[in-house]
Amino acid sequence: MVPFAIYQTSVQNLTFNSIYCNIINNVNDVNVTDVNNVDVKVGLTCVSGVTNSSNIVNYVKIDFLTSGLVLNVSIERPFETFENTTLDSLSWQVTGLPFGGYLLTSSPSDENEIYYYLFDVNFKRYKWDLEGPQPSTIGTSFVLPNNTLMMAQPETDNGWSFKAIDLHKFNNDNDYSNANIKTTLPTIDH
User: Fold this and answer.
1) Does the predicted model carry a pTM greater than 0.90?
2) DSSP for 64-104?
3) Which of 149, 137, 132 has its CA nearest to residue 109?
């Protein structure tokens, strides 16, 4: 496979802090057809944290196909409407979720907690019970293919445990636990 550029800018004095790429289902509900006139609903999304000369952090979100076809480029400011203005200064990991949307996590090095925020496919905040800082001495969490967030809990009594949280599904799983499967032939009884 030959490497290809998916984003280029002529803006000066930018610092690219991070980049996270994931396979995303139903990329922004964009209907794109391939050479066989088949709808494409799966693509890739890269989100890059970019700081400008005024120290303002933006996130460049690029939706594209493996062929290199860029479907959408947008500049996102996920925390600009939040009451807590210090969130912009944290380094965020962006995780694309199996059923659409994004989980942003950050673990400040001087604190024993992890911040969790959930966003829909258009990078709009989705309020949920676990939003904000959560205690963690381990700093480990990950998302399973079934859209479950696994969070390591603080150690107690010479042991440790995980907390399992079912995340909101922004895309329908059609009762197949997979957003890419709409129907089967023969049909599968649920």
Assistant:
1) no
2) E-TTS-EEEEEEE-TTTT-S-GGGGGS--EEEE-TTS-EEE
3) 137
**Residue 52, both tokens:** 């400008």
The H or E element spanning position 18 is strand 15-25
Burial class (CB in 10 A: 0-12, 13-18, 19+), 1: exposed
Question: Residue 76 is encoded by which pair of tokens?
Answer: 């996102």
What separation in angstroms does the CA of 71 have from each of 2, 33, 144, 146? Answer: 19, 11, 26, 26
Cα–Cα distance between 47 and 19 in angstroms, integer?
A: 6
Sorted by where each begins, the domain ranges of the chain are 15-166
Q: Which residues of the chain have pLDDT under 70?
A: 1, 4, 23-42, 81, 83-85, 88-89, 109-111, 136-139, 179-180, 190
CB-count exposure of residue 125 (10 Å: 0-12, 13-18, 19+): middle
d(CA 51, CA 48): 10
